[in-house]
Amino acid sequence: MIFKRLELGLLVRFILLLGMMYLTVHYLTQFTWLQVGSGILVMLAQVWELALYVTRSNNELAKFLQAVKQRDFSQRFNEHTTNSSLRQLHVAFNLINDTYKQLHIEKEAQFLYMQTILQLIDTGIVAVDEESGEVEWVNDAFKKILGVPYLKSIASLEMRYPALYTALTSIKPEHNLLLKLKLPAGQSQLLLTATAFTMQQRPLLLVALKNVSATVDATETEAWQKLLRVMTHEIMNSVAPIASLADSLGRHLQHEREKQEKEPDAAPDADLLQDTEEGISIIKKRSEGLLRFAHFYRNLNKSQHLLLTTVYVQELFNSIDGLMRPQLNEQGVELLCNVSPQNLQLSGDVNLLEQVLINLILNAKKAVQERPQPQIILAAYGENSKTIIEVQDNGSGIPEELMESIFIPFFTSHKDGSGIGLSLAKHIMLLHKGSIEVETEEGVGTVFKLTFI
């Protein structure tokens, strides 16, 4: 139908042009120059109008394609034009415009939806150009974990986190990497996962970064607890008969000693009897000590339920101060307590928390023994809706090679230590859904930081 109307319009214009040419030739033979000049001007106008009529659709199409190239879908074409062929063309253009506009809106909505989801999750995500190292996109969680306000290139991480920079530049797609890193929030373990993809013919690497310290700590604690349950069970099964036998032998030797006193000539050698009795006594004491040790760890592994109450930190510190100050004063160690604000509180098991602080203070006391002005500071404060307790000393510090092992059960650097204090403290903090972190500098001191959510 459009073609028929276009051909009709061309036919009418062609006939009118021929008629004007006939009139112009007619006036030319009559030497009527005014009419001839007017006829030529009219014919030129007709040719110009015919050219516009023929190329009007092409101009409209070019205008539409230029708008598509510039992704300008807001342009509207007049659907009420008197030209029926252009009217149909404008309707089609507007329909295509509306379709592209709807697709663009849906694409923007999906992008916004996915971006909102990626911003809400606690896993850090960054998209990096593999060739240039430029950051294409990064979510807030990634910047929050690393404590950086913005990130334009992973090269900017080289000075602050060299180990992380090396990991980001060397990690392979579909691979996982566990990295230990000291972050603003403390020593952490980060799990890196990478995926490669191509966008606009550029190779990109998508890296997910998650702080798995709590998960790893919980897994390690559970593994140690299982090991301790087996060990305590075997120790008690093996030592209990020894203790019982030593007790029986002790009673038998006591009976022989009493018999010796009544019948000196019939009794065995007195020195041999005394040595045997002393040996059995030592076996009995050590066996009972091992049984108490195993019983303590067995009870520790069973203590998975907390007696939670509202604990006022100032009252907790007063209790610790009254308990520990006489012992510390006797050895010349100064104890300072500071709570800010005074009404600071947390939810926890007060008995277990006292046990944690006592263990940390006893460790601090050993660390400051050789210092000229030994001092232990017990401090508590609130930070970002969290309650933090610190035990700080000005002792000798912890050697770097021991930092990885201080929370392992039975590990100790002291000759008279049992290696259970810090592992117990960590276990109790995990039960409270909290964390324990340590910062140390050799020759300056150590700070143990307890964080309660």
UniProtKB/TrEMBL annotation:
Its EC number is 2.7.13.3. The keyword Nucleotide-binding applies. It comes from the Bacteria. Keywords: ATP-binding, Kinase, Membrane, Nucleotide-binding, Transferase, Transmembrane, Transmembrane helix, Two-component regulatory system. The chain crosses the membrane at residues 7-25. It comes from Pontibacter rugosus. CDD domains: HATPase. InterPro entries: BphY/WalK/GraS-like, HATPase_C_sf, HATPase_dom, His_kinase_dom, PAS, Sig_transdc_His_kin-like_C. The keyword Nucleotide-binding applies. It is found in: Membrane. It is an enzyme of class 2 (transferase). GO terms for molecular function: kinase activity. PANTHER family: SENSOR HISTIDINE KINASE GLRK, TWO-COMPONENT HISTIDINE KINASE. Pfam families: HATPase_c, PAS_8. It catalyses: ATP + protein L-histidine = ADP + protein N-phospho-L-histidine. Residues 230-453 form the Histidine kinase domain. This is histidine kinase.
